[in-house]
Amino acid sequence: MNAVERQTNRKVVQWLEFADEDLRFAGHGLKIKGDCPCRLIAYHAQQCAEKHLKAYLVFHGKDFPYTHDLQELLAECAEIAGWPKELKSARELTYYAISTRYPGEAEEVTRKEAVSALELAKKVRDAVRKALKEEGFRNGNP
Predict the structure, then answer these.
(1) Which of 81, 90, 94, 118 is most buried as measured by Cβ atoms within 10 A of its Cβ?
(2) Does residue 142 sit within a domain?
(3) Span 3-12, mean pLDDT?
């Protein structure tokens, strides 16, 4: 593996680690008794999916736009592979990227919506991880 490939691998690993941190945080949020922070769970689920898609694009050396729009990122990934077509429902997560961060921007996120967002994020994670493995990515190992 040459220096450029090593650097790319390091970047992919970082994107995946950050994405998994968002996923873990969202999962832990669901365990909070009483006043569950559903909007934060949905936000971190969206972040998990976004970062996984960006990791895939980094792996392929593809520049991606500065965006939280999962439909746009899925379209970028679809230029490389077919699996993004199976994740059209993940674009629903885009709503949580901004609307959940500021007061007055959206309606309250329900627990059911938070759970659904987390499940969509896991689908994106699984699809990206599977594609990366099939395409030769080995978690930073040559």
Answers:
(1) 90
(2) no
(3) 89
